Amino acid sequence: MTTTAGLDRETLDLILGTLKDLGKDLITDERCLEWDEKDILPEDVIRKLLSPDVGMHLVFLPEDCGGLGGGAHDIYRVSEAMAKLDLGVATAFLAIALGSDPLRVGATDEQRERWLGRVAEEGLVVAYGVTEPEAGSNVAALKTVAEPIMEGDTVKAYRLNGTKQFISNGSIADLFTILAKTPGGPSFFVLEKGTPGLTPGRMEVKHGIRSSNTAQVILEDVEIPADQLIGLEEGKGLHQANEVFGFTRLMVAAFGLGGGEAALERAIAYSRERKQFGKPLCELRGYTHKLLLPNFVRLEAARAYIEEVAARLDSGEPGLQTEGSIAKLYATETGNAAAEDSIQALGGYGYCHEYVVEKIKRDVRITTIYEGTSEIQQSIIYLFRFRQTVRSKGAFYTDQAAEVRALGDAVAGDLVGRCAEALAHTLLTFRKLKLASGQHVQFELALRITEVEHALAFCRRAARVETPGLQAACRVFAAEVATNLVTTCLRTLAAGKIEPEKVTEFKQAVDVEALLETPVGSFEEMAEVIAWMLEE
Ligand SMILES: Cc1cc2nc3c(=O)[nH]c(=O)nc-3n(C[C@H](O)[C@H](O)[C@H](O)COP(=O)(O)OP(=O)(O)OC[C@H]3O[C@@H](n4cnc5c(N)ncnc54)[C@H](O)[C@@H]3O)c2cc1C
After folding, report:
1. How confident is the model over 96-146, as pLDDT tens digits?
2. Is it the case that residue 443 has pLDDT exceeding 80?
3. What is the pLDDT of residue 408?
4. Ligand 1 lined by 373 (C-beta under 6 Å)
5. Residue 466 CB contacts under 8 Å (≥ 6 apart), including other chains
6. Rounded distance, CA 42 to CA 179, Å?
7. 344: CB partners within 8 A, 6+ apart
């Protein structure tokens, strides 16, 4: 896949190097622990990152507005690196990127220059105001109103009233993009700090990302000129929000990946040093196979998928919202589980603040909630992939199956191909058997869709990269995906009380035995992955 958008390698390396250096002085473990413990918002640090000296926000902004025009790959790498330092600080940048997005995709040229140009040049902190007390996952339920103020036949201004909930940077932002109802439908407006009637409300005390600012934003008779309606056309708000989901969900996926890795790296390092029963923990197979190996393998799968979607976005492929959902669901749930197991891997020390992993665990938890909860991603994934599978009569997956089979056994091409075919068959058969009308079944299938698509991406990446440890990880992952797929299918057929002949027919069609009784993911392969994981 050719990458056509984004930074050159040197610039990206320079930015990642800067972030690494910041981890040594400005965003050290000690400082992050103090911000977390005392609920401190390090606004000076955020302003420093936005200053001309660092200019971290420029990665997220287009070149024609004074930004660096980072592509999806760059944004993923920078987001991952930021999340590894501190997810609270990273969240401030997510909000700046999200808040700038309606302008990036929907503003007129003049508005882009006026507002995005200032974000780039002056390093403005931006907040993205969509959620409301009664409009969370269901954005369409929004109540904030922008009432037109007329001068003759033309709209001269808008008067905004409402409350926005859980807004990142809500009390410190210089600029707000606010979604509000207009007669033409939901629309984004850009508002400046200090506009009369615009005030931050209650600040939340949170489980994690305590270094980030989350606050209500209250709008009471806020009057703004009509040219602060983004795009100067009412009713485009939801479209503008949807258009960037491919990017923004990938960014949060990278947060999940970075958070999970940050915790797991600490657990791996600890397992080398800590001795119990006369041995380092990393030599105890129960410990490694339960707490380290599965997380290591799954995070590699998450990376493979994120990289593939980023490359597709950078090559100009439009949309990819479903792929954004798949990336976000898997990477954030995986990052969260990896952080949870990392606490266990450090024993009592893992439970203590000083050892950082429990902070990471609390931080990374948010990634399964904001930018669309995991359950909302599951709804999207099932709906869109089910439609694609039905429309293509299964070819959406069977074509990919044929392609990965050709990649060979080193990357479990045959098993992953079988999984993709079995998934297509499952989606089509469950439709015929009327088994997937319940949301709980759809959610289970969404998880299997997500895993199979990760296995396909992992296969392609491992074939490209050709590192033996990565290829072994790919095979171990393939075996897990096959097992989960079979379990879901058989359990659903049983719970749906499907007649035995039809179950037998299904088992034969997907070749359950071939999926389960495979040497792929053997003990030797697991040992190979562990050896690779423990390399320093
Ligand atoms: C720290 C933090 C920062 C945030 N930053 C921002 C920000 O900068 N800007 C912004 O606009 N918003 C922001 N949010 C809001 C965030 O995006 C929402 O909290 C999130 O979308 C969920 O909405 P909700 O909290 O109202 O939960 P609800 O929508 O009420 O959901 C509650 C539960 O029900 C589930 N659920 C909901 N609908 C369905 C369904 N159809 N089927 C099955 N289950 C369902 C959800 O998955 C969840 O588990 C932030 C939130 C937090 C906590």
Report:
1. 999 999 999 999 999 999 999 999 999 999 999 999 999 999 999 999 999
2. yes
3. 96
4. yes
5. none
6. 27
7. 291, 350
Own/partner contacts of 470-473, CB < 8 Å, gap of 24 or more, are: 470/300, 470/532, 471/410, 471/411, 472/525, 472/526, 472/528, 472/529, 472/532, 473/296, 473/297, 473/300, 473/301, 473/529, 473/532
Place 244 in a pLDDT band, splitting at 50, 70 and 90.
Answer: confident
- Residues 448-457: pLDDT tens digits? 999 999 999 9
Residue of minimum CA distance from atom 45 in ligand 1: 375
* Pocket flag, ligand 1, residue 7 (CB < 6 Å): no
Cβ neighbours around 105 below 10 Å, total: 18
Q: What is the overall mean pLDDT for the chain?
A: 96
Q: What is d(CA 375, CA 140) in angstroms, rounded to the nearest whole number?
A: 17
Q: Do residues 413 and 459 make contact, with C-beta atoms less than 8 angstroms apart?
A: yes
Band of pLDDT at residue 168, cut at 50, 70 and 90: very high
- Give the span between the Cα atoms of 141 and 403, in whole angstroms: 43
How much distance in Å is there from the Cα of 238 to the middle of ligand 1?
Answer: 16
* 394 pLDDT more than 90: yes
From 371, 451, 453, 525, active-site residue: 371
Chain centre to alpha carbon of residue 294 = 20
Q: Which residue type, as a one-letter code, is found at position 12?
A: L
Report the distance separating Cα 253 and Cα 299, nearest Å: 11
273 is catalytic: no
Q: For residues 181 and 143, what is the distance between their CA atoms, to the nearest angstrom?
A: 7
**Is 370 touching ligand 1 by the criterion CB < 6 Å?**
yes
Q: Whose CA is nearest to atom 4 of ligand 1?
A: 166
Six-digit token pair at 454?
């990760």
Q: What is the Cβ-side half-sphere exposure of residue 187, based on CA atoms within 13 angstroms?
A: 25
